[in-house]
Write a structure and sequence with these properties.
This protein has 280 residues and is of the alpha/beta class. It is built from nine helices and nine strands. Helix 5 runs antiparallel to helix 6 and helix 8 packs antiparallel against helix 9.
């Protein structure tokens, strides 16, 4: 499609080799953009000692290829203000504390310095992942689909209440609620006091997380006593975004303190604060 547009705009003809080259170039750029979202965007600051700088750059790229992408190499820290990044790795002391995370290293990475750099990279990456997860979850939450249930409902009633509301708002197809109920028969989605109903087939029209806090326990199909329900409507293209959300829910939310803070929420804003604070 891109090559067709190029031929139309510039009135040129592209042969198969040229089209393949363009496709490879675009694919490479897409991979680079993806790397910047999953890895740390780093700037390396070092004076112009070519041999040492080259060796250090090669060491960093080799040792931390899965964690960082070095997007720029600067010899003057004054240029930093024009270069946003996640982490600054510098061989010189910075004159002022930068807004970004930073660490000073030597040209030769000793064992002690390597451990310090390891810790810095992993902590910074953890913060970046948490911030991205908070952002993605925030986009999926809606006050319109936040419920505090004071009545004693059963499993089917709460699923129908939440699912039908999503259907009425246009997020899912009419079959969504029954698909969620069928999934519960096959394999209940309850964990401790939390339930995460969702259909097996990912066919939502738009991704969203519907929330219900139950003031009275809901007895689930597998006899779990549920107080917190997260109904997931997932559009197929958003599945990669939901994988870390599943991990977050199963790992963090089930902590006794975290779940109690969530259950104590009296409105959407209190809930959202308590929910996202589990990532702090």
């Amino acid at each position: 499609m891109i090559t067709n547009r190029l031929q139309e705009v510039y009135n040129i003809s592209l042969n198969e080799d040229e089209i393949t080259y363009i496709a490879l170039h675009i694919g490479s750029q897409v991979d680079s953009i993806k790397s910047l979202t999953t890895k740390l965007n780093c700037i390396l600051i070092c004076p112009e000692f070519y041999a040492l700088s080259t060796k250090l750059l090669s060491t960093l790229k080799s040792r931390y290829s899965e964690e960082i992408v070095i997007t720029d190499i600067l010899t003057d820290c004054k240029l930093l203000k024009y270069k946003p990044c996640d982490l600054i790795i510098s061989t010189i002391s910075l004159p002022v504390e930068p807004a970004q995370n930073s660490i000073k290293i030597d040209y030769i990475l000793t064992r002690e310095m390597s451990l310090e750099l390891d810790t810095c990279i992993h902590q910074t990456l953890k913060k970046k992942n948490a911030a991205r997860l908070k952002y993605n979850i925030s986009k999926l939450l809606s006050e319109e689909h936040f419920l505090i249930i004071n009545d004693g409902l059963d499993q089917e009633e709460i699923i129908r209440l939440m699912g039908d509301k999503l259907y009425s708002s246009g997020f899912v197809a009419e079959s969504f609620t029954n698909d969620c109920l069928s999934r519960e028969v096959i394999s209940p989605t309850s964990y401790n006091t939390v339930a995460i109903p969702h259909p097996i087939i990912l066919n939502a029209k738009q991704s969203i997380i519907s929330i219900a806090i139950a003031k009275k326990q809901i007895i689930w199909h597998n006899h779990k006593k549920i107080r917190f329900v997260l109904m997931l409507a997932i559009e197929k293209k958003d599945l990669p975004m939901f994988k870390p959300i599943f991990e977050f829910i199963s790992y963090y939310i089930n902590g006794e303190l975290n779940i109690q803070n969530i259950l104590n929420a009296n409105n959407f804003e209190e809930f959202k604060t308590a929910f996202l604070s589990c990532l702090d």
